[in-house]
Design brief:
By secondary structure, the protein is an alpha/beta fold. It is built from 13 helices and 10 strands. Helix content is 39%, strand content 18%. Helix 5 links the parallel strand 6 and strand 7. The chain starts with 5 loop residues before the first strand and ends in a 34-residue tail after the last helix.
Length: 314
């Protein structure tokens, strides 16, 4: 008897970008199908909505950064990380070097772009710690359009990921770009606060554990194959999503490669460090229950079974 296909809505943390490759490849390689899963990828209009949409059951699975997972549970959404997509991608204030920004103090008199409300909380905390008064800078919510906002002059700098927005800014302007890393300015010692995770609700984990295990097994196999065959993986992603085939997206993909997690494991040290950070920001109440925010129980141990690969030829 053929196993019924489980249609599974998944909401991304951003519009589709090259670091979403493991999900695209999981479908292209037939790995989700092997687990009787059909993944429907959804792009958010506002990235700030993702944890709420997953928390309310609109999507079974999502992607979000660690700080947002902490904030979501504080608001009553029982979401939990089930695995890591990107581990410690450098994140901070992205800018054109021609802007004159070299250190945080240089943002006085400038406009700073942020994605959602947590971004503003982080910016304000950094500025307070540096002795910069709120009236000395202006925060502008730009959502997913930080690079466009810098190019068209709406902001002078904005929160972004080095291996994505820095690359994009340089490619589109032809100018060198820089980044003031938040982990350095906040004294975190790692950029784990902006690691990106696969998330699901406790209800899904309790009621449909086989689905979660199958999803993560497919992701782990797709990720391992991608990291072993990056050029072939990029080409396959472009066959599936033609708009991904550009010099810019290829460059972003290659810059993201060092930050893809090889095991997808949640790292206890990172969750502890970021839990203390978001507590200091006032986003969660103390004492912080770090372990309530993540689980590794749905992950398989390497080595992962290699997929059969059939590439289209030109």
């Amino acid at each position: 008897m053929q196993t019924a296909i489980s249609r599974t809505p998944m909401i991304l943390n951003w519009h589709l970008v090259p670091y979403h490759a493991p999900i695209v490849l999981g479908r292209a390689l037939g790995l989700f199908a092997e687990e009787s899963l059909q993944i429907a990828m959804l792009e958010p209009t506002d990235p700030s909505d993702v944890t709420e949409l997953v928390g309310r059951g609109v999507a079974d699975i999502g992607l979000k950064a660690m700080t947002h997972i902490y904030a979501a549970r504080q608001r009553g959404y029982p979401v939990k990380s089930i695995g890591t997509l990107l581990h410690e991608p450098p994140t901070g204030l992205v800018f054109k070097k021609s802007s004159g920004i070299e250190k945080l103090e240089d943002i006085r008199g400038k406009r700073l772009g942020y994605v959602g409300e947590l971004g503003k909380v982080i910016i304000d905390d950094l500025c307070r710690s540096a002795g910069i008064a709120e009236e000395e800078y202006e925060c502008v919510r730009v959502g997913m359009n930080v690079v466009d906002a810098i190019i068209d002059g709406r902001v002078d700098t904005g929160v972004g990921i080095g291996c994505v927005q820095c690359v994009e800014l340089e490619q589109l302007t032809g100018e060198p770009a820089g980044i003031l890393r938040i982990d350095d300015m906040a004294g975190l010692g790692c950029c784990c606060f902006c690691s990106i995770f696969y998330i699901a609700t406790e209800t899904i984990l309790e009621q449909q554990p086989e689905k979660v295990e199958g999803f993560m097994r497919a992701i782990q196999r797709a990720s391992a194959w991608m990291l072993d065959h990056p050029e072939q993986a990029y080409d396959m992603m472009c066959q599936q999503v033609p708009k991904m085939r550009s010099k810019l997206n290829q460059k972003i993909f290659m810059h993201c490669l060092p930050f893809f997690s090889r095991t997808q494991e949640n790292v206890e040290r990172d969750w502890t460090k970021v839990g203390d950070y978001v507590s200091r920001l006032g986003l969660v109440e103390e004492p912080v229950n770090y372990e309530a925010h993540y689980t590794n129980e749905f992950l398989s141990k390497p080595p992962f079974a290699a997929p059969q690969v059939f590439m289209q030829t030109a």
